[in-house]
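Batch job 17 of 40 flagged for manual review because the log was empty.
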Amino acid sequence: MKPLTYENVPVEPLIEWLRLVSIGKEDELDELLREVSPIIVEFDNDSDDITFQAIEGEPNIIRIGLKCSIRLEAHAEAASVIINAIGTPGYHSMDRVERYKLLSPANEILTWAVSHDLQARLNRNGRSFRVEDIFRTARAEMPVETIQSLSKQQHHLGDLIFRYASSFILLHELAHLKFNLCSTPENENIVDRFAAEWLIHASGRSNLEDFDRQMALFGIATALLWLTIRNVYFGQTGAASHPDGYDRLYQVLEHVIDIHDESENAGVWDFVSHMLRIHMQAAEYEFDPKIDALHMQNGPKDYVNYLIDRISKRDITI
């Protein structure tokens, strides 16, 4: 196997990226960067695996994968399609065919991104299975035409969601360095909360900043949904270093969503339920409309809880 090589890149673009999501927290960002300095950013241009990693040392290293970053960006583009669809007047009263038309670009984009994420995971675990064995509709190439066909508004929304999703992951890694925490389920929860609270507090609560807060919440949700993919297909991981993705997703969002804001509470959980359902349908979960309707009665958060319960009980040996 060819050894991986990493390209050192300037840290300044990463800092400027974080400044864009740290309005009102510029001094705290400077302090955080002083605490973890010096930092070297290493770019992994070759690996297909999910590569976002903090490595403590002299100097500290933040390692970022190019290919997985592109797949995260694809998830953000798909998220923008889903959010626009949900916001379409009369969406929830549409029949399945009408809804599918609105959601189909997200399905196609996610099919590409998820199939490559799963293949990278299989390869890393030394598995010889083809991704088609577990994801029958996988495409070999990014659906460029579908992405290019999205509206200007959808692209703008996707860019914002990617900004917050990638910043959540970067802040998560910086928190590992700040608190000198190795990867354990308990420590992962600590740094997840640090990153999520940073983005939410930076986005504010005034009327002018509500949109930024929404984008922060959607970005956090998108990043954690991306990390939940393996669970959707194979169930619990049993990993000693990280909690299962679905647990991180639920715990972080429950912590940062304002339960007193009905619109925020319903909107974010509704988005999460749509993204999970798209993934679960691709993974060939069966859905009974009557059972679904029963679990939807208490709102989208309870429905997400039901979907996560189903994911946690998935048991596929690969």
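Reviewer: the log was empty due to a logging misconfiguration, but the result itself is present. Residues 68-312 form one domain. Unflagging and moving on to job 18.
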